[in-house]
Design goal:
The chain is an alpha+beta fold and 419 residues long. It contains 13 helices and 15 strands. The strands form three sheets. Strands 10-9-11-13-14-8-15 form a seven-stranded mixed β-sheet. A five-stranded mixed β-sheet has the order 5-6-7-2-12, with helices on one face. A hairpin with a 4-residue loop joins β3 and β4. The termini are far apart.
């Protein structure tokens, strides 16, 4: 691998717009059935990072763009801080764009989105925990579910956005203003975390009744629940828009561990008289249409064409930052009410499952979108995790209460400030 690489199309915006309020970090946490040994975890991290060259990077600032440069240092394991998803200090992290932390029996990876997306981080964490457990003499076979070799490195580090670029496709980058949550912000950039754990079988029976997928149902229910908390919403008449992260690897062939995801949205006017079934029906209709190559490709092309504009390419980075911040504010922060990222089914080797109890994904939250959701399926459970930057938790309570009313048994967990 060469000593530096250009940022992928999705990564370019994050170094420009990130700050203490908007960290653009996410996390994935593996809870084990025994206490974590930090010494062994450090050894596992040093072994694992050598197998993932696209993670062995530091962010650099050039004259025209940011770029990634090979990092010769080794990352270090840290004890978990109660303040999750804080900005990564480049000196403390030795230049890495992620941190691996532990607390009791939990190992967590917090990642700056410039480095990778949820898929890439999940593959790294699976390999890290696999290595950690085997260093403890658990003797786990990979069963083809863990990236444990250096084969096809080029595929893992390629910018798949450029691979699918087709200048003949007409771009589409239109966005509409969305309704936003409002509330009392936590002090010191605290983020609350509330995870609802439900039986996968119970949830499957529920979505069968609604004739939809898990994500379609969740989006419909999230929008329906927004009706129940009008005092937490702006008074404007904008639609409630849920951003749904889509893994483009499911539509376009790619094994890249860099960013290769895209956002689609559902957009509905809130109506307190509309039943849940109708919200789910609309969510299903919109997501079925939009999670498709026909819909997504023009939007990907729109982003890439903007990047390839001759005038933008020759503008110094200091001026690009101004333009990109304005564009991001108009196209992203004003366009979504809430974001949901569903990593789907996380498959581990059979023997490894004996030692991993839970896998939880958390999205960051910020002033413009103070409530977001991350979802994982692991073994017989579904984990739905709300991350919030505001004190009020009424929306989350309504969401889980509705699931209970629909017949699901819900177990709730939260972080310490919420206990």
């Amino acid at each position: 691998m060469r000593s530096w690489v250009r940022l992928d199309n999705a990564a370019k915006i994050f170094p420009v717009v990130s700050n203490k309020h908007r960290t653009n970090l996410f996390s994935i946490a593996f809870t084990l059935n025994e206490l974590v040994d930090p010494v062994v975890l450090q050894e596992a991290l040093q072994l694992t990072i050598m197998r993932f060259p696209s993670f062995r990077m530091r962010l650099r600032s050039g004259f025209f763009w940011f770029y990634l440069e090979d990092n010769k240092q080794m990352p270090i394991v840290e004890k978990e801080n109660a303040h999750i998803l804080e900005p990564i200090d480049k000196y403390q992290s030795r230049g890495y764009l992620f941190r691996v932390v532990y607390f009791e029996n939990k190992i967590t990876m917090e990642v700056f989105h410039t480095l990778t997306d949820g898929y890439g981080a999940t593959e790294f964490m699976k390999a890290l925990v696999y290595c950690y457990l085997n260093l403890l003499d658990k003797n786990i076979e990979s069963e083809g579910k863990i990236l444990i070799d250096d084969e096809n490195i080029h595929e893992k580090i390629q910018d798949s956005f450029q691979k699918i670029y087709d200048e003949r496709v007409k771009p589409d980058r239109t966005e509409e203003r969305a309704l936003h949550f409002v509330g009392t912000e936590y002090d010191n950039y605290w983020l609350s975390v509330i995870t609802g754990i439900v039986s996968r079988q119970q949830f499957k029976e529920l979505i069968t009744r609604f004739n939809c997928t898990y994500t379609q149902f969740m989006v419909g229910l999230l929008t329906y629940c927004a009706n129940k908390v009008p005092y937490l919403l702006e008074k404007d008449k904008y639609p409630f828009q849920v951003f749904v992260a889509v893994d483009l690897r499911r539509l376009f062939t790619s094994k890249s561990l860099r960013n290769f995801s895209m956002i689609v949205k559902t957009s509905m006017k809130l109506n307190p008289n509309m039943p849940l079934e109708e919200y789910v029906r609309i969510a299903k209709e919109q997501l079925t249409e939009r999670i498709s190559e026909k819909y997504l490709l023009p939007r990907v092309i729109g982003n890439i064409k903007y990047e390839k504009m001759w005038l933008l390419r020759i503008v110094p980075l200091v001026l690009k930052k101004i333009a990109l911040k304005i564009g991001y504010t108009r196209a992203s922060t004003k366009a979504d009410s809430l974001c949901i990222s569903n990593l789907g089914d996380i498959c581990l080797p059979t023997e490894m499952q004996k030692y991993v109890k839970k896998i939880i994904f958390s999205n960051g939250a910020m002033k413009e979108t103070p409530i977001n959701m991350g979802v994982t399926y692991y073994n017989d459970s579904i984990f739905m995790t709300f991350t919030s930057s505001i004190l009020e938790r009424d929306f989350q309570k309504v969401f889980f209460r509705e699931l209970v009313n629909l017949g699901l048994d819900v177990t709730l967990e939260n972080n310490d400030l919420e206990a």
